[in-house]
Amino acid sequence: MTVPLTRTLYRTTAHAAGGRTGSVRTDDGRLDVRLAPPRKKVPGTTNPEQLFAAGFAACFTSALAEVAAEFGADASAARVACEVQLGTTDTPAGYGLAVALTVSLPGWRAADLQPLLHRADAVCPYAQAVRGNVPLTLLAVDGPAADDHA
C-alpha cells in the first residue's frame, strides 16, 4: 500500500545519463558525479549503491536523533554504517538489494540502543521506502566510552 504525501517539505531532481557508466547530476549542481559499475575500480567515480548507502546512513542518523530526543537522549554522536549489497534474486527482476545498518552511540550498550533503532526504523523515510521490498538488518553495537574520540 502506498501512502501519499500530505505536504511536500523538500523536492529535488537528479538527472542520469549513460546508466552505470555515465553520470548523475542534481538540478542545483551540488551533486555531479561520474558513475562506474560497482565491481569496476575507476578513479573518480561512484555507483548508485554507494549513493544509496550514503543517503540511507544520513537519513537513519537523523531519524535516530529525532527518536532519541523523545526519550531525553542525545544521539548527535551516533555513528551509522550502511552496507548495501547488490545481488541476484530468484525473481523475474533477477536483481535486488539488501541493506544492513550498524549503529553505535558513545556511552551506550548495544542492548540499550537496539529499541531506539527499531523506533528510528519506523520513522526513517528510507526505511519506510524499502520496507517489504529490501531485507533490512538493524545491528546495535556497543559504543565507545563517551570520552573516547577514536
Automatic annotation (TrEMBL):
Name of protein: Ohr subfamily peroxiredoxin
Family of the protein in this entry: Belongs to the OsmC/Ohr family.
InterPro entries in the record: KH_dom-like_a/b, OHR, OsmC/Ohr_fam, OsmC/Ohrsf
Signal peptide feature range: none
Short name of one Pfam family: OsmC
GO biological process: response to oxidative stress
Matches recorded under PANTHER family: ORGANIC HYDROPEROXIDE RESISTANCE PROTEIN-LIKE
SUPFAM superfamilies the record matches: OsmC-like
